[in-house]
Fold this sequence. Notes:
This protein is an alpha+beta fold. It has helices at residues 4-21, 35-40, 86-100, 139-142, 161-170, 172-181, and strands spanning 26-31, 45-50, 58-63, 74-82, 113-115, 128-132, 143-145, 150-159. The radius of gyration is 16 Å and the shape is globular.
Amino acid sequence: MLDPTEVQQVDDAIRHHYRTFWPSAAVEDEVYLDGLVEDRLPGLHIAEIRPKDWPGITILATIGAWTGTRDSNHNLEFLALATSDVRTVRTRLAKVAYYNAGPPDHRLGVGHTIPIGEPWVKCSNLDHVLLSVPYLWGPSLEDLVLADRHIRVLWALPIYRIEAEYRHLHGLEELERKLEADGVDVLDPFRNPAVQGG
């Protein structure tokens, strides 16, 4: 059973973490209202963060995803970046949190891939998510250590199915090496794949 006081305290600490990390950004958050997600993660919020030095980019970050695995002292929150269609990216991010809050064999971590069954955004061919450390910002964003709980923030990065398959065959480091070597713009939902089939 969730203790409402603990939920409020942890959620407030996560909000503070985001606001401290992006002190000059506009940060708004609202509860994510969707039947299935709400049943599994009541009170899930998704913050919209608009850093002034990143015009045209919205960072979406969950607040409350940790409650899906509250019996553990090590919990996850998730973030994603949107260059367009913020509403759709918000939905994709909520689905990642929903999946992680499911049965124990659905628990996510760095390097896991998830099929999303539809494009990341309209007209995109990216239909999987790779969970990565938020390497654009480093460990000071990734780790939030509270008195009796460790919250880890992971980046939900849209990828191609073929890239997810490559990750399963060759490992996370090899996929990340391919993305970097090919100069892939991971913020572009219409980019070309970093690996080829065959």
